[in-house]
Amino acid sequence: MLPERARFSTFREEFARLNLALDVIDHSGGRPRIDVTYLPLGAVGVCSIVTTPVEFIRHIHYLKDSQDQFGLNVVEAGPVKFANADQEHVYDAGSACLVDRGRPLRVFGPRGGRVRFVTVQAAALKSLVAQPEDLSGRPVRPGPALRLLDRYLRSLASFKESPSSKLASTIGVHLLDLVAATLGPSAEAANIVTERGVKAARLQAILAEVARRFSDPNFDLDNVARALGMSRRYVQKLLEGTGKSFTEHLAGCRLERAFAMLTDPHHLHLAIIDIAFAVGFGDVSHFNRMFRRHFGETPSGVRAASTMREQK
């Protein structure tokens, strides 16, 4: 590992200037820290940057090597100042802006910052959004599409390794559609964007909400619809495309968690009824029947087999 004093200069010279076509200026008082994660998704890229006070600058002499791309930036911790396309604005957490990566750029977080952004090819975006260059450097209008994009970007953090090329390409298309939906698609592209990327992101949001709240015994379909601003029928319709109902998805999350707890030595002190209640079941007999139907074994049998393996 590089010594601490050499890390910033190495990042600036060998990564920022060569790969991002950006110069970097430290404003941390000599103790800079920059954490970058990047996920390539076909023609789309997703990047997350967490920094101490720092300034990123794309001077005009870098533009000859820059790609014809746009970047939609979502600020997670600010304030962060973006200057691009003759516009300059300060953005707080939850706000967003579009950047034309073919023009000079300055980004400054005086107190550090955290920004998540998605880059898309200019030609691809222009096929869905009329004259996106006119939106560059300006704040993006907040609304459901931006919240949907933000949730989708956050969900990608769950990848432990890079997705397959086929899955990466599919996710890339979904993100392109979500960027277009956030900016405002053209009349010709509105239906494509809605039926493709937006629908996929809404389904992902539903499944994420189920995965987050399944242990609540009172959690139901109405809770999901209300939390995500969708109608009950629309939630059901999206879930139909997965081949499972809301009830089946909810039971699946609860049963998988119960299985994990039954096979974890750290939960040996819990009775099976306690585990059933902990994952959201209100009746232990119902839990036992569902568990056996799902795994082909009783909860007590699974726990006994796991304990025997631990003792060998």
Write the layout of secondary structure elements.
Layout: H1 4-20, E1 23-26, E2 34-41, E3 44-51, E4 54-58, E5 69-77, E6 80-84, E7 87-91, E8 96-100, E9 105-109, E10 113-121, H2 122-126, H3 144-155, H4 165-183, H5 190-213, H6 221-228, H7 232-240, H8 246-262, H9 272-278, H10 284-295, H11 299-311
Antiparallel strand pairs: 1-4, 2-3, 3-10, 4-9, 5-8, 5-10, 6-7, 6-9
Helix pairs in contact: 3-4, 3-5, 4-5, 5-6, 6-7, 8-9
Keywords: DNA-binding, Transcription, Transcription regulation
InterPro entries: AraC-bd_2, AraC_XylS_family_regulators, Homeodomain-like_sf, HTH_AraC, Tscrpt_reg_AraC-type_HTH
Pfam family, one: AraC_binding_2
Primary descriptors:
about 300 residues; alpha+beta; Jelly Rolls; Arc Repressor Mutant, subunit A; 2 domains; five-stranded antiparallel beta sheet; 11 helices; about 45% helix; about 20% strand; AraC_XylS_family_regulators; AraC-bd_2; transcription; Tscrpt_reg_AraC-type_HTH
